[in-house]
Amino acid sequence: MSEKHLQTGDVLPPYSGKLRVFAMRFCPYAERTVLVLNAKNLQYDLVFVNLDHKPEWLFNFSPKGTVPALEYEQGKAIFDSNIINFYLDEKYPEPALQSADPLRRAQDKIIVELFASVQSAFYTAAYNAQNLQPEMVENYHKGLESLQKELVARGTKYLHGDTPGLVDFTLFPFFERFEALPLIGKPEFALDKAKYEALVNYIDAMKTVPAVKSYYLTAETHAKFMESRNKGDANYNMLDTSDVCCMRPRKKKE
C-alpha cells in the first residue's frame, strides 16, 4: 500500500467496490476508524490526503474537508470518526465492540468525553507549544489519573473487557502519540510508569493487539512528523515507498 498523500490537482483513485477510507497517516482521528475496520476484519481501501493542500474531491466525501471520511458506496460517504465507528459497529456486528449493557455503553462515552481535555493539552504541546499553560499540563495528568482509576476499578485488561472495544480504539491513537512528546522537548508529558503503572501496562497491551499492531507507528516516527509540521512543512509522505510502485496516482494535465 502506498502511503503517498494525495493533494490539490491529484486524481481520485478508481473505486474498487470496497469500503474506502479517506485519511491522513498521522491523524489520530483517522486512526480510530482504521483500527475499528481492522478489528472487524473488514476489507477496505485507504486514500491518504494532504490536509494542507486538500484534493478538490475530498469535499465530495467530507464537506468540512476533514478526515476520516468513509465511502460506504460509490460516491456516498459519512464523516467524523465517532459517527463512522458507531455506524461500523452496528452495520457489521461481529465482533461487537460495544457492551450489550446500555449503562456500560453510556459510561464508555463519558470516558471519551472526559478525555477531551487530555487531547486538547496534547495538541497544544505538540503543535502550539508557545501557548501551553501550566493548567493544561495539570489537566493532562488529572485526565490520565482518572482514566487509570477507571482501568483499575474495572479490573479488566482493556476498558471494554478481556478484549479491546470501541472505547479502547477511540483512545489508543492518542496514547500512541503521547509517547512522542518527551522526544520533542516536552518531558512534563511523559507517562512515568511509577505513577501510571496500570495505564502503561494497558498501553503496552494495546500495542500487541493485531488491529493496532498493523497500523502502529513508533514515538520516534510521530516526533519526526510533529517536528516537520512545526517547521511549517509537514512531511506527510515520510513513510511513502510508492516510488517503487507503478500505481502512483497521476496529476491532472494542465
From TrEMBL:
**Entry keywords, A to Z:** Oxidoreductase
Gene Ontology cellular-component annotations? cytoplasm
Please state every residue range assigned to the domain named GST C-terminal: 101-234
Q: Which PROSITE patterns match?
A: GST_CTER, GST_NTER
| Biological process terms in GO annotation | glutathione metabolic process
Q: Which Pfam families match?
A: GST_C_2 (PF13410), GST_N_2 (PF13409)
Span of domain GST N-terminal: 17-96
From the Swiss-Prot or TrEMBL record, what is one GO molecular function term?
Answer: glutathione dehydrogenase (ascorbate) activity
Concerning its family, UniProt says: Belongs to the GST superfamily. Omega family.
Protein name from the UniProt record: Pyrimidodiazepine synthase-like
The record lists the organism as: Trichoplusia ni (Cabbage looper)
